[in-house]
Amino acid sequence: MTKILRFPWLKILLYVLLTLYAVITLIPFLWALSASFKPLSEIVGGEPNLIPQNFTFDNYKQIFLQEPLFWRWLFNSVLIALSVTILNLLLNSMAGYALARLRFAGKRFWFLLILAVLAVPAQITLIPTFLILKAIGWLNTYQGMIVPSMVNATFIFMMRQFFVNFPKELEEAAQLDGLNTLQIFRHIVLPLAKPALAAQAVFVFMGSWNNFLLPVVILFDPEMFTLPLGLNTFKGQYISYWNYIMAASMVFTLPALGIYAFFNRYFIQSVTFTGGKG
User: Fold this and answer.
1) Which domain holds residue 71?
2) Pair 40, 164 in one domain
3) Using the 8-state DSSP alphabet, how is residue 185 labeled?
4) Alpha-carbon distance 139 to 128, whole Å?
5) What is the pLDDT of residues 29-76, one digit of tens each?
6) Alpha carbon distance 227, 232 (integer Å)
7) Which residues partner with 240 through β-bridges?
């Protein structure tokens, strides 16, 4: 940073490179947005134009008014993603706080087990998850989509590391005021953990919202499909309706952008903690 301030041309070069990277990153999104207003013939024509030559809203009319299951897919995705996010925020935070602050038998074992789970790719757990859900009759159900995803070892570890650096003085002061452990966690710890919770909420929501592997394994009734799985139905063996796929993809992107925009303010907050590690 000192070198950049000393040599202004380095700062200019940095901004040029970042601008170029931003443009390269935005081009696919802008093309998809443009394609959502094009007829299929113009998309498959091969011309890489960002401005539609035959501008139309028919693609959006098709998915909203003539595709009977689109609203159901949207509802399923919203319900599952919100449920998974809320449960993760609660359970991951509680588990992280317990590992960071509480004393109980097997604490080290559970922490090492969570670290071991981090090394296991999610794809490996798909078949065991399918067999368990089949055994208990949860295939093609909301609970079958929500329960396996309601905790995440990565974010348990993240919250544990956050709470390890949380100042004990605040908790000790709350104990002197007569608060028990649950009240301290609810009224003192969680309000000050907003930056960590916001980051977790964004990543968990987007992970659940974009999830394709789990739905394709356990959902088989079209009425239970989520949006990623529903969009796949627009692709056939001989023809793919890219105009409908692009229009639905734009609708699919809006909730994720909204979640990020809502929690973005917490990313720029700087919370400085004092005191030793727990």
Assistant:
1) 67-267
2) no
3) I
4) 13
5) 888 899 999 998 888 887 777 888 889 999 999 999 988 899 999 999
6) 9
7) 235
* Tokens of residue 266, six digits: 């917490």
* CATH number of 260's domain: 1.10.3720.10
Shared-domain flag, residues 172 and 250 = yes
> Six-digit token pair at 120?
């296991």
Q: Please state, in angstroms and as integers, the Cα–Cα distance from residue 21 to each residue in 17, 25, 44, 253, following that order.
A: 6, 6, 27, 21
> pLDDT tens digits for 202-244?
899 999 999 999 999 999 999 999 999 998 888 765 578 888 9
User: How would residue 267 be classed by pLDDT, with cut points 50, 70 and 90?
Assistant: low
Residue 230 and residue 160 share a domain: yes
Largest Cα–Cα distance of the chain, in whole Å? 73
Cβ neighbours of residue 27 under 8 Å, at least 6 residues apart?
none
